[in-house]
Write a structure and sequence with these properties.
Length: 386
Amino acid sequence: MLYLNKAIACLAVALSLTASGDSTEPPGSLTAEGSPASRTTLNGRAIRGVNYAHIHRAGLGYGSDASKRELTNLQGLGVDWVALTPFGYQHSAKQDHVTGFDPDKPLKDFVTTKTSPNQPRSGRDSTLTDKHLAEQVATAHALGVKVLIKPHIWSRDFWHGDDWHGTIDQTTPQDHERWRRSYLRFILHYAQLAQDTHADALCVGTELLSQTTRHPDDWRILIREVKKIYNGKLTYAAHWDQEFNAITFWDDLDAIGISAYFPLDAPDDATVDQLVEAWGPHKEKITRVHERHNKPVVFLEIGYRPATGTYRGPWLDRGGTADPMIQARAYEALFQTYADETWWHGLFIWKVFTDAQSHDRHGEGPGYSFRNRPAERVIQQWFTKP
């Protein structure tokens, strides 16, 4: 059986995600022995992470005692990274700004976490403030767990499936410019929070397909501005199908990030070996992108529900017949496929909530959580390998 630690013998050089927010080294630099970056490497280990989802109820979300208990449980399973996912909101996919991030106000009004840490920047969610995020980062670090800040955009249009992150776009150049300026303020705010809390890495966007492919120069500007504020490592979470191989600005980031919901062409009763074989065409495509840009690859999202058909359409949050062993086989195949690849620097599983018992269902079927299911044992076995 392949060993996960083989995945990244060179992690300290290629993607030494720093835990020190006051490092003077720019992102991507190689530092001498004893410098902040070399002190805070992952000791040759691949990232063994989860997307750690905030429960939008007082006392159960980021910074809560419930979250500390759950994060302690996850650490016992071998989890050593969490992705925290603050949200920005839009009334529609065509809206020309992110709510609460006025594109006409000065940048300095947003590049701070000091003025109102107890107030929700989005103007909509009183359960998730800068203070909650800062407390969650501190809790993770106290447990020895590293943190990726991974902001998302959400629109009410997404509820019905007609739109999603990839369709966020504006109808006129003027509206797009307003959105660009608003989104810049949104990301720079979380860049400052990441710097202030010594978060270990920052994701500058998630599956914004229309924006990244139609306006790539905007993203080079955004990344330059982020680097003026935050001196940790940077990535972007690209859509598995239409985006990750089309992005032109990977060279400006430290890692190629993929929301890796690749469909596997396999029957409901597929064996692990069949699933590994089904990964073949996707793995070849990922390898080509890695070789083109010479950047490590991290799966910033990948998840399977315990239901039939989950690996044929892993992005689908409902449907299928409940079968927890299918989820377990899907994860076993994933690790067997990638664990021996030196360019694969790990993953963040989608997803675990801050209280495992409060959110374990979504839509009409079981949610993505692996907690207390057979897949948990598979993940623990891989995550705890030396």
